[in-house]
Amino acid sequence: SLFGKSPQSAALPVSIESATVLFEDAAAGFRETFRQGQLDLEPATTDPEGVAWSRISLSLDGQTVERLSLTGAVSLATRRFRVEASIDGFDFQPRLATLLPAGLIEADWSRQAATGLSMRLHLNATATGAVDDLAAAAFEVSGGFAEGRFEHSRLPFPLTDMTASFTADREGISVTGASARSGAMLFRGSAQAHGWNEQADFTCLLEAE
Q1: DSSP letter at 47?
Q2: CB–CB of 73/94 below 8 Å?
Q3: Which of 73, 97, 163, 189 could form a disulfide with 53, with the two C-beta atoms 3.0–4.6 Å apart?
Q4: Is the Cβ–Cβ distance between 82 and 70 less than 8 Å?
Q5: Is the dihedral of CA 127, 98, 162, 86 positive or negative?
Q6: Residue 103: CB partners within 8 Å, gap ≥ 6?
Q7: How far, rounded to the nearest angstrom, does the alpha carbon of residue 113 sit from its chain's CA centroid?
Q8: At a CB cut-off of 8 Å and minimum separation 6, what does 19 contact?
Q9: What distances in angstroms separate CA 99 from CA 60, 122, 188, one per listed residue?
Q10: The pTM is what?
């Protein structure tokens, strides 16, 4: 077994190069072909603390996503994991909202928001935690977007030329360097939410020119 129970496992490493992966969601009418795929699986090795970790790395080039990279490790003995991922050049369009997990767009307002948004996104993310308690995993996300556009029935004009940088973790999310145009107006601002529920405290600074 690749993910052997002991660091003495005789498993061999596995490497796949120049792979093509087709992802298709028939219900959403979405199809994406990823090329130049590379997958590396390494048998368990022991760290200085005596814990055996099995490692995986994956990279893919696509059209909607220019490049997706992921590296991770899991310890079967401690049932712990750690993951690092990066996404470059993610061209998010309204039609992709149907691919989001249902729990993220249950409410009408969030569904309208997701289906009215387009942007070019990049981000880096890390996560560590226990395999048996994913909800308690620690995570950090940082990134930004540009070329954004947002349309909503309650807005007199769409927001265009949207840009912003953001960071997020279990404590909340911070948005800086945000700017957008609406008609002849230019908006600049920043925001921070101290938590992830509807009762979380937040601060917002908005300037209009």
Answers
A1: -
A2: no
A3: 73
A4: no
A5: positive
A6: none
A7: 18
A8: 36, 37, 38, 39
A9: 19, 18, 30
A10: 0.78
Among 103, 101, 97, 99, residue whose Cα is nearest residue 115: 97
Shortest CA distance to 60 belongs to which of 21, 16, 14, 96?
A: 21
The CB density around residue 148, as the number of other CB atoms within 10 Å, is: 20
Please state the three-class secondary structure of 39-102 as a single string.
EEEEEEEECCCCCEEEEEEEEEECCCEEEEEEEEEEECCCCEEEEEEEEEEEEECHHHHHHCCH
The tokens 């055996």 sit on which residue? 52
Q: How far apart are CA 17 and CA 37, in angstroms?
A: 6
Instruction: Sort 22 into a burial class: Cβ within 10 Å, 0-12 / 13-18 / 19+.
Output: exposed
Query: For 193, how many CA atoms within 13 A lie in the half-sphere containing its CB?
Result: 14
- What are the pLDDT tens digits along the chain (209 aa)? 444 444 444 467 889 999 998 888 777 677 888 998 999 999 888 989 899 999 999 999 998 899 999 999 999 999 999 999 999 999 988 777 766 655 554 555 556 667 788 999 999 999 999 999 998 999 999 999 999 999 888 888 999 999 999 999 999 999 999 999 999 999 999 999 998 887 889 999 999 99
What is the signed CA dihedral for 52, 39, 68, 65, rounded to 10 degrees? -160
Note the helical H segments in 15-128. Answer: 108-115
